[in-house]
Amino acid sequence: xxxxxxxxxxxxxxxxVIANDNVNLVVEAGEIHAIxxxxxxxxxxxxxxxxxxQSPDEGVMRVNGREVSFSxxxxxxxxxIGMVHQHFMLAGQLSVLENVILGSEPVKSGGRIxxxxxxxxxxxxxxxxxxxxxxxxxxxxxxVGERQRVEIIKVLFRGARILILDEPTAVLVPQEVEELFxxxxxxxxxxxxxxxxxxxxQEVLEISDRITVxxxxxxxxxxxxxxxxxxxxxxLMVGSELPTPDTTESTVTDQLALEVLDLVVLDNDDRTVxxxxxxxxxxxxxxxxxxxxxxxxxxxxxxxIGTGPVMSGTVRLLGNDITLAPVRKRREAGIGYVPxxxxxxxLLLDAPLWENAALGHQTRAPYSHGPWMDRAGARRRTExxxxxxxxxxxxxxxxxxxxxxxxxxxxxxxxEMTADPAVLIAAHPTRGIDVGAQxxxxxxxRKARSEGLATLLISADLDELIGLSDTIxxxxxxxxxxxxxxxxxxxxxxxxxxxxxxLQEDVR
Length: 508
Ligand SMILES: Nc1ncnc2c1ncn2[C@@H]1O[C@H](COP(=O)(O)OP(=O)(O)OP(=O)(O)O)[C@@H](O)[C@H]1O
Ligand SMILES: [Mg+2]
Known about the structure:
Layout: E1 5-14, E2 17-27, E3 32-36, H1 43-50, E4 58-63, E5 66-68, H2 73-78, E6 81-84, H3 96-101, H4 115-129, H5 144-157, E7 162-166, H6 174-189, E8 193-197, H7 201-207, E9 210-215, E10 218-224, H8 230-238, E11 256-266, E12 272-282, E13 286-290, H9 297-305, E14 312-317, E15 320-321, H10 327-332, E16 335-338, H11 342-346, H12 353-358, E17 368-369, E18 372-373, H13 375-388, H14 405-418, E19 423-427, H15 435-450, E20 454-458, H16 462-468, E21 471-476, E22 479-484, H17 491-498, H18 501-507
Parallel strand pairs: 3-8, 3-9, 6-7, 7-8, 13-20, 13-21, 16-19, 19-20
Antiparallel strand pairs: 1-2, 1-4, 4-5, 9-10, 11-12, 11-14, 14-15, 17-18, 21-22
The chain binds adenosine-5'-triphosphate and magnesium ion.
Adenosine-5'-triphosphate binds at residues 14, 17, 19, 37, 39-45, 392, 402-407, 432, 434.
């Protein structure tokens, strides 16, 4: 069998940065090949080049032994390459079938879409790779793991035999990760070649055959997964040993910082999505919320920060009722917020970093001076954030879009933490952040906690939830269904609370 992918001497320059510097990558047909490296190392750029989304400045690409040159993803798809992006690109109001065929609809003579043929081909693909979906389901009603499966099927439907997945596990709970890995193994059995990016080194070791490590735009090594440990990988990635996060004693006080009382939120169809939720976070305390996406966490957070409606109930910040206060007032009163979707809520992608650093804090020093924006102050603060939070960028004047995913996230964390909040609402704070930087973020939050910060932490990373929280509550179908001691719980057992399995056992 010819080599599936052979990239030789790939170089890609952006203004002020060499994203890929003479990178080599060889992926054998039928293997699962992981790409690892720090935030900003150049992983996504390399994958976008391979998928025809960006063109390299230098280098040669071979697919199945033949030299190729892509000017768009259409060219890559024609060569059997498909990519599943980290930000899902499905249309929520369409069915699974409609989403899968979108853009490559089989047509009957006369030009109408041949739905029977589409359904038949979809069934064939699901059957061949053991990926089950219900073609009639609305995408909006699916769990995250199911949506991802639809994205994978969509790629296979177009005939892809080489699959690229950029951080596919970041949004999944452990049970879903296991399911994804089962699917990837089946795909491999079926002859597919898989390239994927992942920051969780244990997962990388578990699923991949070989691993290529990229550091600062250059290929460092390609190793057999069986021959290395997580520590070895980290050393290859960052060139030094993994930092170990400090564990610190509890600093929980008896002073209330955030109180949510009997909160009820309805959705557009008048269904109860937050069902009589009460919780408190004290100064110096981290309360973790565990739950599978779509169980009311988003609506709860929206009600606390003021971007969503409240049907009834009360939210208090440092003793003051803020249930009806506008977002700006809440921010000024000390709420820090790390949103779950950095692209839609956290950043202005086309604005420079220094404007992004001011976002949500623009009415206060150092970003403003009286009624005026203080540009010099904003730039100075952004330089501080860049330094302290290791945001890798050629300058604070580039647009947020030009940062790698992990560096965008570090900018947001830096912005919120330097504003010295009284209460931090952190949704997936380290999503997409590399292992070294993740330890830094944890230490920052722990240090702020010891100085009195109250944190409400929402995370799909159960190790993070267990490692950081003083208390964990589980949210299921809009209700808080369990309060757990992180010292006494494992990621697996927490996972079964989140899927409701543990609750049914309790009832019996
Ligand atoms: N469109 C762009 N314009 C300018 N610079 C860019 C652009 N895309 C990426 N870069 C830069 O190229 C470098 C590599 O980015 P890339 O997104 O490939 O990193 P990554 O390894 O995927 O990181 P992460 O783990 O954070 O996702 C970074 O310095 C980034 O700022
Ligand atoms: Mg990336």
